[in-house]
Design a protein that fits this description.
Number of strands: 5
Shape: globular
Distance between the termini: 71 Å
Largest sheet: 3 strands, mixed
CATH class of the largest domain: Mainly Alpha
Strand content: 5-15%
CATH architecture of the largest domain: Orthogonal Bundle
Order of helices and strands: HHHHHHHHHHHEEHHEHEEHHHHHHH
């Protein structure tokens, strides 16, 4: 028997919403208590703020904390605003220091100090360590809770350390090895510890470590952790002293957020940073309107070009028929190049210094694409109209594809070089730029071929 999870979820949410509307709290409790945490998170993501708070209050304390930890930081922020101070303090204290900072970055500035004051001294100090790093640095996302060992300690002594730190350590599967100055000199895995004899020294088991400075860019550090397949990446200060660790689950979370943000901006919207169904209408409007205004202003360039070449259009009206084709082809070619290079930048396949190599490659790619499309355009347009129109369309497609691919390829690299998000400079702006440029190329070729 096949169960339709989406239909079941929709039905459960409709039932819970109706029960809340009718103040049937007993019914709500019966509907949610006992559900797996993942299903509760899915339900909470689809309810509005007030409904989410009601459901949350009816959950057992431990399960409420598990759900809270799994929710996206913006939804956690909504709950903080909707719950009582005592409930918020309990939830906030139950989070790990790095998860606390994710939440604090979403809260109004006046709320954060109040929550921090309510923490136990140890938790407040650990959270303050993470908060002390810049917003986009990996230090802001690392965990300051870890277990370490020393090259001169034995496996038995190290396992005792791990056992003593089980309650607070973010992970025990990868253990940094520190010298007397707290500098990271190696790394040892729990697997190797468990398979070695008790009197074996850590110096004999440890491997060379991969480390990242706490001030490094958050996405770059997460990419290192994911690409190397590390369960935990030591984060160090300028003197190679350990200050925290980045676990693989946090690295994946960071990369998912960054890729979601890039994908949104390439499509001409601001990232929502929360599930779609829990995003207020005003936030959806705000995420799109700015880009539409920018693109509308940019589109005036196309109008200006058409006005300049109005006489050319009047002389050969058939030219107007091909404007949508040329604009669309140029925009799509540029967007393809920009998306490919932006992704290569994110993966570390190219750097800003590779701009000339990328320019050469995309110029050749654009030329060959244009040659194929131009040949097709020539073959279609010539029998229907005449040889002059066919040659004009063919040559324009070659030129437009070459220019569009070249511009689309180098714009993300130029943006990265000046420390601007490459996604911002990609598809929407490239489409606008290529539209105007493509029309200029089109009319200049038409004037030369048709002797207008």
């Amino acid at each position: 028997m096949t169960v339709d999870f989406n239909n079941d979820m929709t039905g459960a949410i409709d039932t819970i919403s109706q029960q809340i509307t009718s103040s049937n709290l007993t019914g709500v409790a019966e509907s949610v208590v006992g559900l797996p945490t993942r299903e509760l998170v899915d339900i909470c993501e689809r309810l509005n703020v007030k409904q989410r708070a009601v459901v949350f209050r009816l959950l057992p304390k431990q399960q409420a904390l598990e759900v809270f930890e799994t929710l996206a930081p913006p939804l956690q922020s909504d709950l903080v605003s909707a719950l009582r101070d005592s409930e918020v303090a309990s939830l906030f204290a139950g989070l790990d220091p790095d998860d606390r900072v994710w939440l604090l970055d979403e809260l109004p500035a006046g709320v954060a100090p109040q929550l921090l004051r309510g923490l136990p001294d140890r938790e407040r100090e650990l959270t303050a360590v993470v908060l002390g790093y810049p917003q986009d640095s990996i230090g802001r996302r690392m965990s300051p809770e870890y277990v370490t060992t020393h090259p001169g300690l034995s496996v038995t002594q190290t396992l005792a350390r791990i056992h003593a730190g089980l309650e607070h350590a973010e992970t025990i599967y990868t253990v940094p090895v520190l010298d007397d100055g707290r500098r990271v000199v190696g790394i040892v895995s729990l697997r190797n510890l468990m398979s070695a004899s008790g009197d074996t020294l850590i110096d004999e088991l440890m491997k060379s470590p991969h480390t990242v400075k706490a001030t490094a860019d958050v996405e770059d550090a997460a990419r290192v952790c994911a690409d190397l397949g590390l369960l935990a990446l030591p984060i160090v200060d300028s003197e190679s002293r350990l200050v925290g660790i980045l676990t693989i689950d946090d690295a994946v979370r960071i990369l998912e957020n960054e890729e979601t943000e890039d994908a949104a901006r390439q499509g001409g919207v601001e990232p929502l940073r929360r599930p779609y169904l829990s995003t207020p209408i005003r936030s959806l409007v705000r995420s799109r309107v700015l880009w539409l205004l920018v693109l509308a202003v940019g589109a005036t360039l196309t109008v200006q070009v058409l006005e300049v070449f109005e006489d050319t259009l009047n002389a050969v009206t058939v030219l107007a028929l091909f404007v949508p084709l040329l604009i669309g082809t140029g925009g799509n070619t540029g967007n393809q190049a920009a998306t490919t290079v932006t992704r290569a930048l994110a993966l570390g396949d190219v750097r800003s210094r590779d701009i000339l190599r990328v320019l050469g490659r995309e110029m050749r790619v654009g030329f060959f694409l244009g040659l194929m499309l131009g040949t097709l355009g020539f073959a279609v347009a010539t029998p229907v109209y005449d040889l002059g129109i066919g040659v004009t369309i063919g040559l324009t497609l070659v030129a437009v594809c070459t220019v569009a691919a070249t511009i689309g390829g180098i714009m993300p690299l130029a943006a990265h070089a000046i420390r601007v998000d490459p996604a911002v400079f990609s598809n929407p702006f490239i489409s606008t730029f290529v539209d105007a440029t493509g029309l200029i190329i089109y009319f200049l070729i038409a004037m030369a071929i048709l002797q207008i």
